[in-house]
């Protein structure tokens, strides 16, 4: 029987964790992650636009979205929801699509929402990336998404 040894530190290097606190109640932050009309408003890095977003938010349900770069290039992403605990936790797969709409390397995303004195601490974890470069690219992209999310949540109309 062949055994393999996994280098835990090498694996951890290909994981991403971002923690942000949003000045909004947990139920609202969860809502804008799980309703396509809201998710599409902040998904994507700065200056990107979501042109398509479908979501079947239930365990086993899928989502698919297209974000367009400022240069006009479309980037499609997709995944499947694994776990939904409203308003505490979302777990879903994440994969960019190739030119044939087939998923490329798949990662697992876990988002937790913790209430903190009327604000929400969001802990975002994504793993395992193919490379450190891929992880760093996603860190930049998600950080810009969360900047956009912060602005979006500050709009009083979002609560309705």
Automatic annotation (TrEMBL):
Residues 23-153 form the Activator of Hsp90 ATPase homologue 1/2-like C-terminal domain. It holds the Pfam family AHSA1. InterPro entries: ASHA1/2-like_C (IPR013538), START-like_dom_sf (IPR023393). It comes from the Bacteria. Belongs to the AHA1 family. This is Polyketide cyclase. It comes from [Phormidium ambiguum] IAM M-71. The lineage of its organism: Bacteria, Bacillati, Cyanobacteriota, Cyanophyceae, Oscillatoriophycideae.
């Amino acid at each position: 029987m062949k055994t393999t040894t996994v280098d835990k530190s090498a694996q951890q290097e290909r994981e991403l964790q971002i923690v942000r606190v949003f000045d909004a109640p947990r139920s609202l932050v969860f809502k804008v992650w799980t309703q396509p009309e809201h998710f599409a408003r902040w998904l994507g890095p700065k200056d990107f636009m979501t042109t398509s977003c479908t979501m079947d938010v239930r365990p086993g349900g899928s989502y698919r979205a297209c974000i367009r770069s400022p240069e006009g290039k479309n980037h499609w992403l997709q995944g499947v929801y694994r776990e939904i605990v409203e308003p505490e936790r979302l777990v879903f797969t994440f994969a960019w699509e190739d030119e044939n709409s087939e998923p490329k390397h798949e990662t697992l995303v876990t988002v937790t929402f913790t209430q903190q004195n009327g604000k929400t601490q969001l802990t975002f974890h994504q793993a395992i990336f193919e490379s450190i470069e891929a992880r760093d690219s996603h860190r930049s992209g998600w950080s810009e998404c969360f900047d956009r999310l912060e602005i979006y949540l500050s709009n009083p109309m979002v609560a309705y």
